[in-house]
Amino acid sequence: MINIAIDGPSGAGKSTIAQAAAKRLGYLYVDTGALYRSLGLHALRCGADPGSAEQVVPLLPDAHLTMRHVDGEQRVFLGDDDVSEAIRTPEASMASSAVSAIPAVREFLLDVQRDLAKKNNVIMDGRDIGTVILPDATYKIYLTASDEVRAKRRMLQLQEKGIEQPYEEVLADIRQRDYNDTHREVAPLRKADDAIEVCTDDLTLEESIQAVLDIVSK
Ligand code: DC
Questions:
Q1: Nearest to residue 177, comparing CAs of 37, 60, 29?
Q2: Using a 6 Å cutoff on CB, does residue 113 contact ligand 1?
Q3: What predicted TM-score, i.e. pTM, was given to this entire model?
């Protein structure tokens, strides 16, 4: 199987770019952030503190998390509830970052991710795909953009979903999540030594997709 790992900070455009590239290559797109987001949402719904391992770990056996692909589009379910939209709120974003620092949560999601990559040609995006989940991925890409560009893009994305959040707040959230994601003890966000870095600051969406496809075709 061909596995393409795309890692990078929040808002670098990973999911949009990876999804489009996967469609053109006919690969399965796997958004691993959606898994952490679903567990973050699960913790919030259960009234738990997403940053507390003692409160979150006992909830894991009841988190019936499934990922289904419908017409190439990934949907995530908690039990029978399609949470694909609910996991995109600012609250769920912060909760996902908090639960993702808990080692048992990462362990819980490891097999789901590896299993998908074993059975399919995938483009998988996340924070630790090239470093931990798929260290032998066929291609590894580290997608970045400056804090400000990422905050502007994220604000527009939220607006499209009808969520209004001031720019300064979006920027602060992005920086806080970057800090959490790069400073956690287990599987922190970092560029794999053999990953190719792509900065999307000055690239259009189409150019960014092309940059990924160029790496794969080489
Ligand atoms: O990619 P995203 O913004 O949807 O990810 C949500 C959170 O999940 C992010 O703050 C960090 C965490 N995450 C992770 O720790 N490892 C991954 N492979 C994907 C996401």
A1: 37
A2: no
A3: 0.91
